[in-house]
Design brief:
Blueprint (H helix, E strand, L loop, with lengths): L4 E9 L13 E9 L10 H5 E2 L2 E2 L2 H12 L3 E12 H14 L11 H9 L3 E4 L4
Parallel strand pairs: 5-6
Antiparallel strand pairs: 1-2, 1-5, 3-4
Length: about 130
């Protein structure tokens, strides 16, 4: 399990290349975890760029990202949670606080407001080491 990860429910389809192959079912659902980049480092604003109120702000874009990562056609993707430890969450709040004066998160005025705006209530803090 990753230290901190964005967790998605993904529905994908397998399209056989051979004409003499049939699949039943052709669609499958799975859980996909995308590592959360360390706060303050390149890519750490993934949540800001892709989520709003705990849902995908552009499902088509997230489907494309999932297709690139999985190598199969993705029919749907649904954000489930940011799964993290307390240490990563504290570092995330600190990095957000540093960005607030720059207007990086619109008119949000606290790290908690930013997290609520982008992740909704979909933050799962797990005990360290689990």
């Amino acid at each position: 399990m990753l230290d901190a990860a964005y967790v998605f429910r993904v529905r994908f389809r397998l399209d056989p290349r051979a004409e003499n192959v049939a699949l039943a079912p052709r669609t499958f659902e799975t859980t996909m975890e995308r590592a959360a980049d360390p706060p303050g480092e390149e890519g750490w604003l993934f949540f800001r760029d892709n989520l709003w109120r705990g849902e995908a702000n552009d499902p088509a874009h997230l489907r494309e990202l999932a297709e690139e990562a999985l190598g199969v056609p993705v029919e749907s993707i649904e954000f489930r949670e940011l799964r993290t430890g307390a240490e990563h969450l504290a570092a995330l709040k600190e990095a957000i606080a540093e960005e607030l004066p720059r207007g990086t998160f619109g008119n949000a005025d606290t790290p908690q407001a930013v997290i609520r705006n982008y992740l909704g209530s979909s933050v799962h803090v797990r005990p360290e080491g689990s």
